[in-house]
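WARN retry 2 of 3 for item q-0093 after timeout on previous attempt; input resubmitted unchanged.
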Amino acid sequence: MPNAIDRIAADVRGLGIQPDDTLLVHSSLKSLGWVDGGAEAVIRALIGCLPEGTLLMPALNWEAVTRDSPKFSVLNTPTCVGLITETFRKYPGAVRSMHPTHSVCAYGVNADIITAGHYMDRTPVGAHSPFRLLRKYAGKIMMLGCGLSPNTFMHGVEENANLPYVLEPEPTKIYMEDINGAVHEAYYYMHDFRGIVQRYDRAAECVNVRRGKVLDADVYIMDAAELWDAAGEKLIGDPWFFVDRE
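OK item q-0093 returned
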């Protein structure tokens, strides 16, 4: 009987993931059912499917870095988006982009170049964010067992459209510790979604979504460039399309 890594890899390949893909994965370990080897087995399976490509995962930590606690360490600040991403953050060979709230971890061919410029952004998903750079690398977005809602890529679409509900009006001073232990000061605009319910599941109304299973998890896959263009067009017609107001 195939082990968990082989079974996961077979399911992922069956969903059309290619060896040279650039793949951003949002994930839920619980959704997969019991996995021998846990989160590390999932990561090893995904990496094994991309021998010529790049695996990315959000390493978001907006719960830890706030106005009241304005400190971030690229090596030590944990993620707040699940065990798979937290395990990936510490995985040998993985690199993490330098951003106080919306960093990304990456492994593979283009990991360094995709994450290198994120420190220049002053918003959560700015022009140098790995989320936005997905389009440049013909990236795909995989929602692995977590539904369509927690799609951080959509924040880049919102920021690009300059929507009124996205950012706080005043920046926050953040102290960031880089990989060498040096501390840098910079001002960042945080997200401001007070009174807003995010509805990124509506992306399925805009683009083709490949649907399938990995073990017990429901999986959705989208093309990043297609989603960027289609979602941007939706927001021109209706700036509130991807949110509900409470």
